[in-house]
Amino acid sequence: MLYNLLAPLAIDFGPLNLFRYLTFRTGGAVMTALLVCFLCGPAVIRWLKARQAEGQPIRTDGPESHLLTKKGTPTMGGFIILLGLSVATLLWADLSNAYVWVVLFVTIGFGAIGFADDYLKLTRRNHKGVPGKIRLSAEIAVAVAAAVWIMHITKAPLDTTLAVPFFKSLLINLGWFFPVFAAFVMVGASNAVNLTDGLDGLAIGPVMIAAGCLALISYLVGNAIFANYLQIHFVSGAGELTVLCGALVGASLGFLWFNAPPAMVFMGDTGSLSVGGALGAVSVIIKHELVLAVIGGLFVLETVSVIVQVVSFKLTGKRVFRMAPLHHHFEKKGWAEPTVVIRFWIIAIVLALIGLSTLKLR
Predict the structure, then answer these.
(1) For residue 327, is it within any domain?
(2) Residue 259 included in any domain
(3) How many whole angstroms separate alpha carbon 157 and alpha carbon 171?
(4) CA distance 160 to 74
(5) Residue 337 resides in a domain
(6) What is the tally of structural domains in the chain?
(7) pLDDT digits (tens, 9 = 90+) for 31-68
(8) Residue 194, CB half-sphere, CA atoms under 13 Å: how many?
């Protein structure tokens, strides 16, 4: 909004030219999202506590310590992230850029699905919310609509193609299969973050790391000079997503203030589904879907651990891990919760650096 209002006035008042720069507006988005979370977070948490007398339902089949340490902690804290992200993006982004609206649509749409899931869990007092098939169908509907929207915004030949890392000009034309693939990326990223969200601060740290990486890639992809130098595919208008990713970094930092061990609030499906969907949507637009699987490799590991556990138990009756997702396995082995969280953050940082290296290895 500030860009649309103030940038045109730069002709008459030079200092307003700052609002033309993505770097300046991204910094503003980071700080705005952070401040919104800091200022509104305590009030939101008090409101959630007042309406969640017993807090989030804790799984009885989970680690025994959770029944004691996490009982009474409210959920739906993802609303704090959504608030900071939305306010900062609407304030600092170019609102005439359709890509910004696509990502906001996915973020808020998935957040609404997560909110419904959290609400049913609270009212029913168990960890089962919206039936899986209904929730998945709603996620697919939002993701497919966004994918078709992206197809119509993006210029050919990038509108229906998949870019392959390490290759300068290789594009795989998916045709009308593109919406299916794009929806898979968004829904997969969303649920992968959701599976990772099981310990205080565990999911939001890697989300912040991934968002920072995507902010950098968006900036480079949206700049014809940098894209040509790095021999990556230039996507006109995608640079504006740098501001949105910056807002997500700021909102994640703000939420981490309240979610750090011992957590004052859990993000719940309201937060995990929305931020995961946002990461997926951005990766589809900037043609780095496969790189997201590396940058967000921790989320992939957590998801694979669940799949392996389920398949192994159904086929052999035996479990590969003491408990899935993977972070619970290490808890069962005796690792302290902060130890699991910090070590998983380290893994996330290493994977992010590997993912960023694909920008130059062509």
Answers:
(1) no
(2) yes
(3) 9
(4) 42
(5) no
(6) 1
(7) 999 999 999 999 999 999 888 766 666 655 555 555 44
(8) 24
